[in-house]
Design brief:
With 373 residues, the protein is an alpha+beta fold. The chain contains five helices and eleven strands; from the N terminus they run E-E-H-H-H-E-E-E-E-E-E-E-E-E-H-H. Among the domains are: 130 residues, no CATH class; 119 residues, Immunoglobulin-like, CATH 2.60.40.150. Helix 1 packs antiparallel against helix 2. It is flat. It comes from Chaetops frenatus (Rufous rock-jumper).
């Protein structure tokens, strides 16, 4: 799947037809989109590489000073499509498991059915959580729209009082009150915009490699620097023989942002003091809200002879202590394997024969204590 790039000057009012995932704008406004031929670069990783997280909840962007309602509308529509797709995928999985339970109910082991039932309940909990998350986002967006309408009304009042004659003291007081309301509604919009941004989840980005066809040669070294708001990711790699690529980092987690775009800079390291910038592009991210992982390609230079391949997975939740349905199912089935499904009574419960033996021993002890034995 091809990926175009945005120009450095951000234009948010022009509607652009993009590819299905992670699309943007070419470096010139009238340049046609470039298609990417399929390729499968081989990427090797160094020992000990792991997912990088160079930020925490405290590193999120502060509330903006100027709201971006048009941009928020675009992100909200993309987010709703992603959540709907997530619900559909898990609903299909739930129906598949329910059908499997009905077909296997007669001739199957009890433990197998028990594991399937655990998976069904886990997916049902995840679906309820997704629905609650979607309803929360809808409430935030509705509150944002209300504040936007109030702000537009206050703006019209300020404009009307400003263009007219100064008038009486009542007119000046009304102008001051309208200006105060406009400022208050603007601050509320900024706070709601920041709150909605905190509900966008996570982007898990996996480095798959560079593709340059005749552009890449054995021994070449590259540095890739990604900037997404206040979040950074820098990685270095080299091209080895047999088209193998070795990178010092492979995965990164980014928190989605409303008004920011993903900036990618690729530099070729020729020597200690000779670094050549191959390309510096800015990419759209609102099309990454998808239920399934997406493999996307970024045109690094203008000719499209060097491309960056990334695998992006969107997680609608950004808390590590709340795993997805699949990971919950795997953990539950692993724990259940330690115990026998057919052992319905605790091991310390004595049988009737053992209880009679204990009673006789107690009676004998009482008789010995009173000297009657």
């Amino acid at each position: 799947m091809s990926l175009s790039v945005r120009p450095q000057r951000r234009v948010l009012v022009t509607k652009i037809n993009r590819s299905q995932s992670f699309a943007g704008v070419n470096s010139s406004a009238d340049r046609p989109f470039r298609s990417l031929s399929p390729f499968t670069p081989t990427v090797s990783r160094k020992t000990g590489s792991r997912v990088s997280r160079m930020f925490s909840m405290s590193h999120k962007s502060p509330p903006p000073k100027v709201p971006q309602p048009n941009r928020l509308d675009e992100v909200y529509e993309a987010l709703k499509k992603g959540l709907t797709a997530y619900l559909e995928v898990h609903q299909l999985e739930l129906e598949k498991l329910s059908t499997q339970i009905r077909e296997s109910k007669r001739n199957s082991r009890l433990g197998f059915l028990y594991d399937l039932d655990k998976q069904v309940k886990s997916i049902e909990r995840f679906l309820r959580r997704l629905e609650f998350h979607a309803s929360k986002i809808d409430e935030l967006y509705e509150a944002y729209c209300i504040q936007r309408r109030l702000r537009d009304g206050a703006h019209n009042m300020v404009k009307a009082y400003s263009t007219g004659s100064p008038g009486s003291r009542e007119a000046r007081e009304s102008l001051a009150e309208a200006s105060k309301g406009y400022k208050e509604y603007t601050e509320n919009m900024c706070l709601l915009e920041n709150e909605l941004e905190s509900q966008l989840g996570e982007f898990h980005i996996r480095m798959k490699g560079l593709a340059g066809f005749a552009r890449l040669c054995a021994g070449d070294q590259y540095e890739i620097f990604m900037k997404y708001g206040r979040q950074r990711w820098k990685l270095r790699g080299r091209i080895e023989v047999n088209s193998k690529q070795v990178w010092d980092s492979e995965e990164m987690v980014f928190l989605p942002l409303v008004t920011e775009f993903l900036s990618i800079k690729v530099t070729e390291l020729k020597s200690l003091a000779n670094h050549v910038v191959v390309g510096n592009v800015s990419c759209e991210t609102k099309d990454l809200f998808a239920a399934l992982p997406q493999v996307v390609a970024v045109d690094i230079n203008d000719l499209g002879t060097l491309k960056l391949s990334l695998e992006v997975t969107w997680n609608p939740f950004d808390k590590d202590d709340q795993p997805s349905a699949a990971s919950t199912v795997n953990k539950a089935s692993t724990v259940n394997k330690r115990f026998s499904t057919y052992n319905q009574s605790p091991p310390d419960t004595p049988s009737l024969r053992e209880q009679a033996f204990y009673v006789s021993v107690q009676q004998a002890g009482l008789l010995r204590r009173h000297g009657q034995w």
